[in-house]
Amino acid sequence: MNSKIIANGILRAVAIMVGVVLLGWFFYKIQSVLAYLAIAAVLALLGRPIVLFLRRRLKFPNTLAVVVTMVFMLSIFLGILSLFIPLIAEQSKNLSLLDIEALKGDLTTLYLQTLDYFGASMGSFNSLLDESHIEENVLKGLDLGFIPNLLNSFVNALSNFSVGLFSVLFISFFFLKDSKLLQNGILTFVPNNKESNLVKSIDKINNLLSRYFAGILLQLFILFVIYTVALLIVGVENAVVIAFLCALFNIIPYIGPIIGGAIMITLTMTSFIDSDFSTVILPKALYVLIGLTIGQLIDNFFSQPFIFSTSVKSHPLEIFLIIIIAGLLFGVVGMVVAVPGYTAIKVILKEFLADYSFVKKLTKNL
Questions:
Q1: Residue 238 has what DSSP assignment?
Q2: For residue 329, is pLDDT > 60?
Q3: Using a CB cutoff of 8 Å and minimum separation of 24, what contacts does 79-88 make?
Q4: Phi and psi (nearest 5°) for 97?
Q5: What is the DSSP letter of 312?
Q6: Largest CA distance in the chain
Q7: pTM of this prediction?
Q8: For position 306, what pLDDT does the model report?
C-alpha cells in the first residue's frame, strides 16, 4: 500500500513538472501575443479616463466614446511619428547623406580637428594604422552581401510592426469597450471560492498601475522640458523632437538614459558639423552634457523616488534590485515590465497568501 502511494506521488510530481514545462513552453511560443495583450492593457488604462469623460460628461454612447478615444490616441501616435520627419531630413542634410564626397569631406575635417584638439599628429596616427594593418583587415572583411539581408530585415520588421499595431488596436478596442473583459477572462481559470480575492487584486492592480503610468508620464515630461531648454540654449534645430526622443528612452531603466544621452550629444554634434570642433562643436556638446546631467539628477533624486513611493508603494532600492534581476533574466523587455509585474505579484500575494509572515513584511505598505 505504501509503495503504491509513493508511486502515485512520484507520478503526480512528474506530471506537475511536465505540465509546468509545457505551460512555460506554450507561453514562450506565444510571447508576442502576451506582449500585445500587455500593451493593449496599458493603453486601455490610459484611455479609460477619456472614455469615462465622453460617456459621463458629453453623453456619448459607449461604442462611440471608445472609437473617439482610439482615434484620438492613434492621432497622437501618428503625430509623434510625423515629428521625426523634419529631424531625419535635417540630419540627412547636415551629414550630406545624398552627397558621398561631401560626407567624406565633413568626416575628414572632423577627424583632423579632433586630432588637432587632442594634440595628436596625423602622421603618427596613420603609422599606427599601418602597423596594426587595421585598414587592410577592414577592407578584407568588407562584404556587401549584407545589403539584401538588411532589406529583408527591414521588410520583416515593417510587416511585424503592422501586424503588432493592428493587433494592439483591435485588442485595446474591446478592452476599452468592456472594462471587465480581461478580468472575466482571468476568472474563468480561478475557483469560485477565490473569485472575490482575485477581483480585489485586479482592482488594486489597476489603481496602482494607473498611478504608476501617470507618474511615468510626469517623469518623461520633466525630462522633456529640461532637455528642450538645454538644446534651445545651445541652438540645436528640432530641439523639441530630439528632446522628446531622448526623454522617451528613459522608459528603459538605467540603460535608456545612457542611450538617450548618447543620441542627444551625437545629434548636437552633427547639427554643427560644418563648424570648428574646438570652439563650437565641443563646447556645445559639453553644454548639452550638463543639461543631461541636471535632468538625470532631478530624475534620480526626485522623480523616481516620488513615483515609486507614491504609486507602486515600493522602496527605490527594492525597485532597483527587481529591475536588475529582471534585466538579467529577460533583457531590456524585462527591465521595462519589471515594476508593473512586481507590483501585480505583490498585490496577488497579499490577497491570497496574507497569512505568511514573509508576505506580510513584503506587502505591508500596500
A1: T
A2: yes
A3: 80/244, 83/240, 83/241, 83/244, 84/241, 84/245, 86/238, 86/241, 87/238, 87/241, 87/242, 87/245, 87/267
A4: -65, -25
A5: S
A6: 90
A7: 0.65
A8: 75
**CA–centroid distance for 334 within its chain:** 10
Distance CA 155, CA 85 (A): 20
- Give 216-273 pLDDT, tens digit per residue: 888 888 999 999 999 888 888 878 888 888 888 888 877 888 888 888 888 888 777 7
Structure-block grid coordinates of residue 188? 474563468
Q: How many residues does the chain have?
A: 366
Nearest residue to 205 via CA among 30, 37, 348: 348
Q: Which three cell numbers stand for residue 210?
A: 494607473
Query: Where do we find the cell 594604422?
Result: 129
Rounded (5°) CA angle 20-333-317? 95
Q: What is the pLDDT of residues 37-60, one digit of tens each?
A: 878 887 887 788 888 888 888 888
Residue-wise pLDDT for 272-284, tens only, equals 777 777 777 888 8
Alpha helical stretches, state H, the chain: 2-29, 31-56, 62-95, 100-117, 122-132, 134-141, 146-177, 181-187, 195-234, 239-248, 255-271, 282-298, 304-310, 316-352, 357-362
